[in-house]
């Protein structure tokens, strides 16, 4: 939907802009300057080096608005590997069903949950060299996961997209535009 895309992009432009940079504020001005210079020159958060730090922030925020949540794996050396929400899936990729057809009541929307509903493991879909999809379990302690929860007690495992409430209106506007054109 072109209108939804424009709303998300405008939000990313207005909130993230050109990105954010940490600013050390210790009492040692020389140390602050050295850390700032090192950060600009050396620190690359994206483990695959596809995005600058500013671009990575824009990708994360866009995904958060569009999908309702975003994840990243913490790697050694302080880097992260982005896991967009469509890759966090229940094994089998069909709702909460495994490929052999049996349902696992403890796997909800790509997360294995404990008795209290607390996420314990995320399942991340990856492809083998042969093109087969496999789901790798990732302990929740290794996953940075941020979701736009719509309930204060966070009973859901996944977040709500920012435009979810206006989706029917956006589709109606899009349909009207197509009919007129």
Please, could you describe this protein's structure?
With 181 residues, this protein is an alpha+beta fold. The protein has 4 helices and 7 strands; from the N terminus they run αααβββββββα. It has helices at 2-15, 29-42, 53-67, 167-180; strands at residues 69-74, 80-84, 107-108, 111-113, 119-127, 133-139, 143-147. Strand 1 (69-74) and strand 2 form a beta hairpin. The longest helix is centred in the N-terminal third of the chain and has 15 residues, at 53-67.
How are the SSEs placed, and which strands pair?
Blueprint: H1 2-15, H2 29-42, H3 53-67, E1 69-74, E2 80-84, E3 107-108, E4 111-113, E5 119-127, E6 133-139, E7 143-147, H4 167-180
Antiparallel strand pairs: 1-2, 1-7, 3-4, 4-5, 5-6
Helix pairs in contact: 1-3
Please tag this protein with its features.
181 residues, alpha+beta, four-stranded antiparallel beta sheet, three-stranded antiparallel beta sheet, 4 helices, globular
Brief digest:
Helix content is 31%, strand content 20%.
Number of helices: 4
Q: What kind of oligomer do you see?
A: single chain
> Which strand order does the major sheet show?
3-4-5-6
Amount of helix: 25-40%
Biggest sheet overview:
4 strands, antiparallel
């Amino acid at each position: 939907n072109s209108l939804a895309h424009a709303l998300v992009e405008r939000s990313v432009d207005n909130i993230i802009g050109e990105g954010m940079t940490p600013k050390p504020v210790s009492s040692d001005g020389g140390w602050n300057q050295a850390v700032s210079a090192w950060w600009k020159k050396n620190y690359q958060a994206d483990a695959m080096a596809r995005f600058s730090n500013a671009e990575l922030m824009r990708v994360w925020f866009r995904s958060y608005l569009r999908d309702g949540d975003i994840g990243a794996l913490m790697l050694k050396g302080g880097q992260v590997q982005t896991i967009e929400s469509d890759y966090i899936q229940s094994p089998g990729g069909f709702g909460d069903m495994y490929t052999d057809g049996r349902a696992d009541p403890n796997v909800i929307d790509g997360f294995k949950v404990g008795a209290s509903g607390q996420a314990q493991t995320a399942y991340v879909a990856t492809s083998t060299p042969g093109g087969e999809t496999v789901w790798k379990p990732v302990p929740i302690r290794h996953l940075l996961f941020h979701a736009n929860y719509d309930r204060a007690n966070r009973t859901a495992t996944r977040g709500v997209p920012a435009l979810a409430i206006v989706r029917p209106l956006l589709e109606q506007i899009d349909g009207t535009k197509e009919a007129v054109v």
